[in-house]
Amino acid sequence: xxxxxxxxxxxxxxxxxxxxxxxxxxxxxxxxxxxxxxxxxxxxxxxxxxxxxxxxxxxxxxxxxxxxxxxxxxxxxxxxxxxxxxxxxxxxxxxxxxxxxxxxxxxxxxxxxxxxxxxxxxxxxxxxxxxxxxxxxxxxxxxxxxxxxxxxxxxxxxxxxxxxxxxxxxxxxxxxxxxxxxxxxxxxxxxxxxxxxxxxxxxxxxxxxxxxxxxxxxxxxxxxxxxxxxxxxxxxxxxxxxxxxxxxxxxxxxxxxxxxxxxxxxxxxxxxxxxxxxxxxxxxxxxxxxxxxxxxxxxxxxxxxxxxxxxxxxxxxxxxxxxxxxxxxxxxxxxxxx
Length: 338
Prior knowledge:
The chain has 338 residues and is mainly alpha-helical. It has 2 domains: 9-217, Serine Threonine Protein Phosphatase 5, Tetratricopeptide repeat (Alpha Horseshoe), CATH 1.25.40.10; 222-332, no CATH class. It is 59% helix and 4% strand. The protein contains 16 helices and 3 strands. A 3-stranded mixed β-sheet has the order 1-2-3, sandwiched between helices. Helix 6 (102-114) runs antiparallel to helix 7 (118-132). The longest helix has 22 residues, at 195-216. The protein is globular and about 70 Å long. The model has no long low-confidence stretch (mean pLDDT 85). This is Preprotein translocase subunit SecA. InterPro entries: SEC_C_motif, TPR-like_helical_dom_sf.
């Protein structure tokens, strides 16, 4: 059950409790499961319970895949039930930490925007964009909300278009241009007695809803499966039928990068990489009632890992280490692959 499901169609309290139980059963996926549970707590109106879940995760922040994301969600939640001072302190800390992931930037900027801190919201969107975008390169899918949010806030402030606003316009795939969607004068159309204005506003709202639905239709990335060298050796030794799929580790890594580039070229957004382990794969095969040597099981395993929140976005952000685990910057490793 997705957290965006309307309250009238789901018992958010029960769904949160189910996810919390699942987190106890699958500790390796606790971060993703408890974040979903916290979202359901927020939607149920129990914001203190959501904060308790964020605090539970942050009690061992070093073990989290994305502690900045958890802090950003906690700050946004706190502000919604009158803990403004604490929320602002967390937001300031996130901005100072300068995370190399777009999601925390978007969440804290939208929290500022929601509370009419438009100048601060614009600065936050801009800081994130400046850190994560590289001149001359196509912005990664994960950074699109940064550019769209920045465009929206700047329209509300009456700022002139700049290069990033133009880029946001070009990235938007909706039938209504961003300039029109983000027009601050739209609110007056809702009170108009002019049928033409009302019809135009309904069209804009439908386009905006379509964009949100498109984003929600892919709650996790299109993920490619990656095996570390030791895991791949163990896998092919145990299941020789997979050797044809993985002739060598070097070929495996090269195939991952080329497949992802081909998907990106074809226009597929929100790409990612999931890392497999032999015990996890064997358990998945057992749950499916088949043998791990079945090559058709591999993409299903990758999709399952992605759905459990195990995917890492591709390509890595500017300056980040390569996804392959070499420790070298992506731009000096597989990022140079032609």
